[in-house]
Amino acid sequence: MKIPKLLQFAVLVLIAYGIFKAPGWFGVPIPGSLIMMYMFFAVVTILLVMTSTEKSAQELFTPIKALVDDPSKAMTRNVVFAVIPIIGAVIVFNQVKPSFEAPVELRATHPAPPSTLRAFNKSFNIGTLENPMRKLAKEDPAKFKELVKEGGVVYYRNCFYCHGDKLDSKGHFAQGFNPLPLPFQGKDTIAQLQESFVFWRISTGGPGLPKESTPWLSSMPIWKDLLTEDEIWKAILFIYDYTGNVPRSWEK
Amino acid sequence: MATKDERYDKMAYEFIKVSITAYSITAIIGGLLAFSLFMFYPDFMKYMTRLFGPTMLAYALIFFAESASLYIYYYGWHAMHYGFLKWVHLTIGLVLNAVGTMLMFLANSWVTFMLSPGGVDAAGAFQGDIWKVIHNFLWNPINLHRFVANIAYGGSIVGAYAAYRFLSARNETEKAHYDWMGYTANLIAIGALLPLPFAGYWLTAEIYAYSQQMGITLMGGVFAWLFITQAVIIGALFLSANYYLWCGMERSPGAYRYTKYIKYIAGVIAVCFLVWFTPHTLILKPWELKTLGGQYHPFLGPLGIMPAKNTAVNNMLIFTFLSFLLYRRANKIPTVSWAAAGSAIQAAIFIAAILNIVYLGVYYGYFTNTVYKVASSVPQVASTLTVIISCMVIDVLMFKGAKDVGEFRWGKMPQRSQYALFLLAVSFTWLMGLMGFIRSAIRQHWHVYTVMRDNSLDAFTPTIGYAAKVVSIATVIFMAIVIFIFWLSQLSAKKQEDKSKLHPEVIPYEPAAKPLKPETETE
Amino acid sequence: MKIFFRVIVFSVLTIVLYMLFATQYIPPINPAPPPKEEALNLGAMTMPQFIALGEKIFNGKGTCTLCHNPVVKRAPLLESVAVRANERLKDPRYKGKAKNPADYIEESMREPSAYVVAGFGVTGTNDTVSPMPVITAGAIGLNDVEVKAVVAYLLQLGGAEIPFEVPRGQPVAEKKEGQAAAPAKTGAEVVKKYGCGGCHKIAGEAGAIGPDLTKIGAKRNVEYLRRAVLDPDADIAQGFPGGMMPKDFGDKMTAGEFKLLVEFLAKSK
What percentage of chain C reaches a pLDDT higher than 70? Predict the structure, then answer.
């Protein structure tokens, strides 16, 4: 059996919509603004292909023409002519109805760090800063293990309330924040960052974020006022160690 | 050049007639622009006149030469139609184009001087060498970019004209003629569009080389989103150009053999297009932000960076070329013995190039250090060019003396396909306006970058949205003028046809760059 | 006519679609307004405020961070420049005349080629020419006070002592020529301000490119000195090549400064 062109069109559009929506069911939605653009061009492309030959264009448009012209289709016509304005009205209503959602904002999660960080009464050069304890991983594994363990203590005393006991950002308080605390699990989070960046983020917290990360400043505390330099470095060792990630190193 | 096709002659004559009106309107608008500049920016213009005085005089004089050659070319069309005089006429046509290009280059030097002043000291005082002022840092990149773009733009306007005449054609002959004209114009436009991105790369690289600050303002700062807009429009251009080719296959009775591939080509182009305009920084609703846990998307994020875009655009070019190849062979059956092998080689080249491009994009984009991220672009472009050149050569050899499936039917085009040509012309105009805006806007608060500051009270750099509105209005006005010009030329259409029937003789003349229209300056 | 309207409607729709995309879809980002010259009240400024001003200029108007940043590394990072300045001053490749880190930093801003950090020179010059743009004129156009503020900031960044006070008095408005400072009040100041000591041995400085001027007043009269400043190539001192001395001192100096300078030279006996 040959599927009518118009039905083919509708099915294809639905399939495209399904493909774009599918990631959302697995927790990584494609943003609505982008789906709108994707769908626009998907529909246009399907239309272009379907009208690229005279024959298929005819097949596509004949039922539509018939709907308008054919006296025998009066009932269907009336239904369609009633339903289309209603669909339009629903869309318009949903677009303009007031909502409590905060306006869309462009926010950089990992903004470019400043070149220097002032903390603990000295200046750190973020461009070259390295974790002073990192080298122990090779030189003195036993000592390194000890430090990681101490870092774990720091983490569970301070960080886990938000970042979670499995470092997956599902801590007790996590849902109360906007923006959400970031997870450390996964290969595309802290693995992409240098330790100096992490050190900067921990040290200055939410208030230390530059303008591109506004307006919703993260509620992360300014840890340099609460922890010592060594404690921060140890906690960093711990979060990399626990998640099995290796910090990005400086290009040589 | 020595094609013996009467249709080129007819097309050229038709267009030179249009150009006469366009020419006077160009002069009027140019005058308007000059007067407004002198009125609104007297100090700035005083400075520019002091510097460029001699070149402005030269400009006026060359304009005379342009007028003279245009009028001789137009009015002498029938007087110089045979033998030696035909060659004289052709030469005048070439002079017309050369003089026009010179005019553009001169005007370009004023614009590029504002971007990258040369031949003056830090305070803007003239240092005595006018050539250095003209030949400033960005002059040649802009010259090349505008030269290529003018050909593409001219082609698109001719295409729109042909499309309109096609739609309102009263008989089959007329229809066939304008169908052919639209096809040729489209081919010129798209042919010139393909190298345009590379001219653009060069210009951008030179802007970076001239001033890091300017480069960063252009690509990374407030104007970054402008390039998403540009990507969307260029993607739309590619889609419509392909659509025109697909519809054009209706002209060939043998096209049924290839129409089944259209949907796959369309699928690939659509996917490439979607990758192309996926921005790196996403606009997220709060709930999306919450679900994602951050601004960066785990699998859309990687599509936002340069290697993905390069991969997408190269594939888009390759598949557009594939559409063109299918269109070419739609009506032909090769007679050479190695036809099957030839097709297989072409297919192999295509597959190898696509694999190479994707591999380069993925490998350099995601498995090497940040430093090498752009290293893939040159070999990718090389692959694309290899495909286009080698497959074209094979194709030409393979279809030498090929058998036609049936009669090729010019004019057998669905009406809707003509709207692809309108889209091309409108999009080009709009995009040109927008890119003109960005070219001006990167100067920010400078009239002449680093030399003369715009100190007027209300000085500001418009947002993209503001510029888009101005550009839209300018496009509408421009389109209205173009329609007026075409309408004028149609007034005398009937008489002209009678004349042309009396002279079946041929003048080979290929329409090159159209007469130049000063780009709208957005301050 | 029907076709005409169809085409018009199609074209206008296309334009409107593009416009809607650019105005509604694209996030509106306002370009920054033109930078304003800081209205400084130097009289009331403390050193920390002055350093903060320097930081602001360093990250903003001065556009220093476009190159001096750890990501692009187009220029050396400046976090420890104050510490490293002492090594630089001892380096045989150093061509400037600074004696301490503060002067070294200021000099490297005004004459970046005085010392080019290895690997950062213009390609092909073997690190003798710096690619750094002019910062006291042109697009950046810092005035003397702003330069000083950046110096203070960089010194503080590296943890070094700041050997100078906050400059008092109003900053001179931006001048086209980019050289902006209060007029000098004594002849010696004029000599210093225009860098005569870069070439001449004069007023305690020991340049070796031009003639020794410590006793010039004994040999030459006022008229000669006047001409030598305004039109240096009119008379060339024996043993020195002509055409070396800039010819624009007459334009740069105020009339008062010129008078002071000539008097100063005439008195140098």
Answer: 78
Q: Closest approach of chain C CAs to the CA of B222, in angstroms?
A: 6
From A31, A41, A180, residue closest to B282, measured CB to CB: A31
Residue at A109 is within a domain: no
In 3D, which of B22, B1, B91, B148 has the Cα closest to residue B489? B22
**Residue A129: which of A221, A187, A198 has the closest Cα?**
A198
Nearest to A104 among B269, B283, B416 (CB): B283
Domain ranges, residue A69:
5-96
User: With pLDDT > 90 as the criterion, what percentage of chain A qualifies?
Assistant: 19
Asked if the Cβ–Cβ distance from C79 to A115 is below 8 Å, we say yes
- Spell out which residues of chain B touch residue C31, defining contact as CB-CB under 8 Å: 221-223, 441, 444, 460-463
Same domain, residue pair A91 and A125: no
CA distance C219 to C200: 16
d(CA B99, CA B258): 45
* Residues in chain A within 8 Å Cβ distance of C27: 104, 106
Partners of residue A125 in chain C, C-beta under 8 Å: 70, 77, 79-80
Cα–Cα dist B199/B231, whole Å: 16
In a domain, A111, yes or no: no
Sorting pLDDT into bands at 50, 70 and 90, what band is B492? low
Chain C residue whose CA is closest to B160: C7
- Whether chain C has a CB inside 8 Å of the CB on A128: the answer is yes
Does B284 lie at the interface with A, CB-CB under 8 angstroms?
yes
User: Do the Cβ atoms of B290 and A178 come within 8 Å?
Assistant: yes
The residues in A 188-217 lying below 8 A from C, measured between CB atoms, are none
How many independent structural domains does chain A possess? 2
**ipTM (interface predicted TM):** 0.81
Cβ–Cβ < 8 Å for A235, A160: no
Chain C's closest residue to A118, CA to CA, is C157
Q: Do both A131 and A186 map to the same domain?
A: yes
Residues A125 and A88 in one domain: no
CB-nearest partner of A109 from B250, B262, B295:
B295
Alpha helices in B407-453 (DSSP H): 415-441
In this prediction, residues B116-129 reach a mean pLDDT of 78
Q: Are residues A88 and A139 in the same domain?
A: no
- Residue B1 pLDDT > 70: no
pLDDT mean across residues, chain A: 83
Give how far C134 is from chain A: nearest CA, Å.
22
Residue C92's pLDDT band, with cuts at 50, 70 and 90, is: confident
A residues 13-42 closer than 8 Å to C (CB) = 33, 37
CB A85 within 8 A of CB A76: no
Question: Is residue A110 assigned to a domain?
Answer: no
> Is the CB of residue A106 less than 8 Å away from at least one CB of chain C?
yes
Higher pLDDT, A9 or A123: A9
Decide if C30 touches B, using CB distance below 8 A: yes
Question: Given this model, what pLDDT does residue B515 score?
Answer: 43
Categorise residue B444: left if φ over 0, alpha if ψ from -120 to 50, beta otherwise. left
Question: What radius of gyration do chain A's Cα atoms show?
Answer: 28
Q: Indicate whether A102 belongs to any domain.
A: no
Do A120 and A238 fall within a single domain? yes
Hey, what domains does chain C have and what are their CATH numbers?
42-157 (1.10.760.10), 187-267 (1.10.760.10)
Distances (CA, A) of B125 to A4, B90, B455, B458, B483: 74, 45, 19, 26, 45
pLDDT-based confidence at residue A85 (cuts at 50, 70, 90): very high
Q: Tokens 């001449």 identify what position? A: C200
Residue C246's pLDDT band (boundaries 50, 70, 90)? Answer: low
- Does one domain contain both A207 and A151? yes
Same domain as A124, residue A88: no
pLDDT at B133 over 70: yes
> Per the CB < 8 Å rule, is B266 touching A31?
no
pLDDT tens for B318-336 read 998 899 888 888 888 888 8
Quick: pLDDT tens for B56-89: 888 888 888 888 888 888 887 777 777 777 788 7
